[in-house]
Design goal:
single chain; 150 residues; alpha+beta; Multidrug-efflux Transporter Regulator, Chain: A, Domain 2; 2 domains; three-stranded antiparallel beta sheet; two-stranded antiparallel sheet; 7 strands
Length: 150
């Protein structure tokens, strides 16, 4: 079973893309109100986070990026967390067993909340960036980067 029930969306071209870019230039979101989404004359009120997700999708498409849309279960298996974070299932199991990622048992199987997996991934990304910055400072100080700016 795949983590995402995937649907790929390719960006519009020509006039459709230009219209989308023009729309996005005029769009602003206020965080304390609901927003109206209208498709084919049908409208629905949506909260700000949903409107932001729609604008993010449209923004990526307007830049010529393809987008992958999918739904994710709230409680994930170790394999699904590995797929989400780009690491092996075995490594996820190690992280869970040493307490780096919270989990709960469903029968004999570990299940991890999506939010916990995302928080771990974000924290790991920040830690990696700090480590790489430190390595680059040390390397620059040692004269290993002649004139390279980073």
């Amino acid at each position: 079973m795949s983590l995402l029930d995937e649907k790929a969306v390719t960006p519009p071209q020509g006039a459709e893309r230009a219209n989308l870019q023009h729309f996005l230039e005029r769009s602003t979101l206020e965080t304390e109100i609901t927003h109206t989404l209208v498709l084919d004359g049908n409208s629905i009120e949506v909260p700000t986070n949903v409107a932001q997700a729609v604008l993010d999708l449209l923004s990526r498409l307007s830049k010529g990026q393809s987008v992958l849309i999918g739904s994710v279960d709230e409680m994930l298996t170790t394999s699904q967390v590995g797929e989400l974070l780009g690491i092996s299932r075995n490594y996820v199991t190690q992280l869970v067993d040493r307490g780096d990622i919270p989990f709960e048992y469903r029968g004999t199987h570990r299940r991890i909340r999506l939010q916990d997996a995302i928080e771990y991934g974000n924290a790991a990304r920040v830690a990696r960036a700090k480590s790489l910055d430190e390595i680059s400072k040390i390397s620059k100080k040692a004269g290993l980067y002649a004139g390279d700016e980073f």
